[in-house]
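Crash report, auto-generated. Payload:
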Amino acid sequence: MPILSIVRWLSIPLLVLAATAGPVYWAFPEGLSAARSLGIVLGWAGCGLLLASLLLMLRETWLSRWLGGLERMYQWHHRVGMVAYVLLLAHPLALAADAWPDSPLLAWQTLSPFSLGWAVRLGWLSLLLLMLGLAATFATRLSYRLWRWLHVSLGIGVLLGLWHLLQLGIEEPVLPILALASLFLGWRLIREDSGLAARPYLVQMAAPVADGTVEISLKPLAEPIAAAAGQFVLVAFFAGPTFRGCGEFHPFTVSSMGADRTIRVGVKALGDCTRRIQAIEPGVLARVHGAFGTFLADRPAAAQLWLAGGIGITPFLALLRAGPVSQPTTLVYLYRAEGDAAFLPELRELAERDPQLSLQALATGNEPPNPDSFLPAPGQLGDSECYLCGPPGMVATLRQALRTRGITPRHIHFENFGFR
Ligand SMILES: Cc1cc2nc3c(=O)[nH]c(=O)nc-3n(C[C@H](O)[C@H](O)[C@H](O)COP(=O)(O)OP(=O)(O)OC[C@H]3O[C@@H](n4cnc5c(N)ncnc54)[C@H](O)[C@@H]3O)c2cc1C
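Recovered output after restart:
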C-alpha cells in the first residue's frame, strides 16, 4: 500500500484520537474519587469527539483529499458523533454514582434538571437536542430536507453543551473548544451550505437523455473548478427565465469536462429537487463546489469489471468520453427499462469503437437484479478490479456477490449515490 494511502487511511483515526485525548489530558482530574474522575473524563472525551465529528462534516476539496473522501468523512462523522453521545450520556450518570453512597438526594440533584439551576438544565437541553438529531439520522424514511434540519439540532446541542460547562465556571479548555466548534459550524453554514465556496456557472444546454433524466451543460462564469473523470461536484441551481431551482447543493457526478472547461452533469429525477431540474433551461444560474471523490482514480493495470446501476453510469461515462480504456474492461449497465437507460446509444457506439471495452446492457425490470444472471462465474474473474456505482442497495448486493466469488475487498471499489 503506497505511503500516501496509509497516511490517508490513518488520518481520521489519528485526528479523532487527538481530538479526544487533547481535552482529557488538558483537564485530567486529580485527587478525586474514581467515579467523579470517570464522570469528568467522559465529559471531556465526549466534547473532543463532538469537535472531531464537526470537523468531519466540512466539505472542502483539500480536506476530503487528505481524509480519504467525503463518503469516508461522513461515515466517521456518524460513528464519532454516536460514540460522543453515549459518553456524554454516561457523564452525568458517573457524577451521580459518585454522590450516591454519601447522599442519594445529592445524586438525584446531580441528575435532575429541576434542582441545580441553569448549568444542569443546559446540560440536559444539550443532551436532548443531541438525542433528537441522532434519532433523526436513523430515520431514513424522513424527507431529506426535514432530515437535514433535524441534523442542525445536533450543532445547537454541541454549543449548548459547551455553554453548560461555562455556566459551571469551567473555562479551560472550554473556550478553545467553543471557538473551534463555532468555527466549524460557521464554516459549514456560511462557506458551504450558503455557497461561498462554490463557483458561478451558467446552464448552457439541457437535453433529455432518457425518461426522467436530463444532461446539463454548465459554462463557468469565473474561474472554473478542476475535476477529473469520475469525480462529483455539489451543484445548486437557482432561477432562470421561467425556471425556479431549489437552490440547495446536491451531489452530481461530472459526466464530461469540455476543453473549454464546461462541465456536464446527468440528473435523474429521484426526488423533489431532481424532479424540478428536469424542466431546467439555458440561462439558469448555478453554483458548483468541488470536485470531490477518488472513485476511479489510480486504477490498477488489471482487467476491469465496471457495474453501473441506473444513473450510476455517469462516472464510467465520463471516463469513456475522455478516451479509450487502457485495460480490458467489461461494463455491465443495469437499468429498469430501455426508456430509463440514459446514454445507452452513446455507450454502444463507444464500445463498438473501443476493442478493449465490452458492454453488457441489461433491463432488470422493477425487481432487484439477480447477480448470477450477469456476473462472471468465480473462476472467470481472475484478479479483476471491480468498480460499482449506483443506489446503495444495489452496491451492497453486488459487493456481497463479488465477495462470494472470491474477490477480496481490496479489489472492490464503490461509490454510493446516497450519503445518508
Ligand atoms: C457521490 C454522489 C454522486 C451522485 N451523482 C449523481 C449523478 O450523477 N446524477 C444523479 O442524478 N444523481 C446523482 N447522485 C444522487 C443525487 O445527489 C440525489 O438523487 C439527489 O440529491 C436527490 O435530491 P432530491 O431533492 O431530488 O431528492 P430527495 O427526495 O430530497 O432525496 C432523495 C435521496 O437523495 C439523497 N440526497 C438528497 N439530497 C441530497 C444532498 N443534498 N446531498 C446528498 N444526498 C442527497 C438522500 O439520500 C435522499 O434520501 C449522486 C449522489 C452522490 C452521493
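Post-recovery validation: Residues 304-416 form a domain with the Rossmann fold fold (CATH 3.40.50.80).
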